[in-house]
Request: fold
Amino acid sequence: MNCEQAKALLDTYIDGELGPDERAQLEQHLETCAECRATLARLRRFRDFFIANGPRYSPPPELKTKVLSRLEIAKRREATAWLRKPWLYAGILLLGGLLLSWWRISADSEKAIAQQAVSNFVRAAALEHLCDVVSPDPGVVGSWLTSKLDFSPPVVLPGLGFQMRGGRLDVVQNRKVAGLVYKRNKDLLTVFVWPAGGQPLRPNSRFLDGKQVSAWTQADLNFVAVSNMSGQGLDEVVDRLKNAIK
Amino acid sequence: MGDISRFEELFLPHLDAAYNLARWLGSGDEDAQDIVQEAYTRAFKGFAKFRGDNPRAWLLTIVRNTTYTWLRKRASQDKLVPFDEEVHAMPAEPVPSEAYQEARRGQVEAALSRLPAEYREVLLLFEFENWSYKAIAAALQVPIGTVMSRLSRARRRLQQELAHDRPEEMGDEL
Ligand SMILES: [Zn+2]
Reply:
């Protein structure tokens, strides 16, 4: 090792970061070279001087308080971070809008459906054409309707004195539906049935044009019952039908 | 979500070191205080990612990065002398220390302030924070050889700056 090589390593040597081989070689050179030893001594003195006189900056005491309050803020922000996501608000608004429009559409269409069912009921009675197939047997009525439709309407008896009169094809919301016709003395009951197809009916009852109307969805089928009976009797009939369909 | 009391326990003891580093890297007292607050906030946000066993080194690395970002943002670019290993490399001839034995801290500070921040930071981290070359290389994301040469050049440059300050005290050896 010559002096040039040695001097290049002196800093690292002082720093204690020299590998064992280079260190041994350098120490060997230092033993024989007074000039490098002198340089090494100067470097050490300078280093000691620098460490003794290098600045040490101390923060003002209030910095700790400032940091702590910043951390408090950061902590609080972290706890409520999810509230500050813009997509969250966009999502809530969008969902709210969808719910509102869905509610409006369904409220509108519920009423429209009830209206159509009542019109069908009144027209059939006025035309005195209640049934396309006349039978007191639910099985016969069911088979006939199934053969004319793309689904099988469940044909059941509600009891409470109602007799099966038959069935007919009708139209609700532009689609072919099954109409099940029951009678109890002067009380006429017609139940319209069609596949819900992703548009189920919220259970709802109302009076329209002097008729009682009750709608529901069950087993992926929409049901709308219409009757001219007086009083609140339709709800009980609907309960019986629901139980029988299960 | 970080545990704030655990965070404070680990990192508040290094507040002085954090402030000191920000000052060393060229910020004044006010900036250094802001930098330290910013760095602690950043550290807290990243606390979940802290896996190491050396919170002081982790914090100081954040302080360092925050300081550079801060100084750049504040357009205090004049304090950050554009850095070039070769340009800033000075003749390796050491200056005798005898000439400076009387030097005051103020003179060292003034001399340091004329060094590029890259030199000041290796000096601080090695001489005062006692980091190894390896730790400095990792924090600065440079090869160990660069740390080694930068440290040597920083010392030469500092010696020169001090000599420049007090030419009347230069020894015969110069
Ligand atoms: Zn030599």
Q: What stands out?
A: The mean pLDDT of chain A is 88. Chain A touches chain B at residues 7-8, 11-12, 15, 17, 39, 42-43, 45-51, 53-60, 63-64, 66-68, 70-71, 74-75, 78-79 (CB under 8 Å). Helices of chain A lie at 3-14, 20-32, 34-53, 62-79, 86-126, 138-148, 234-245.
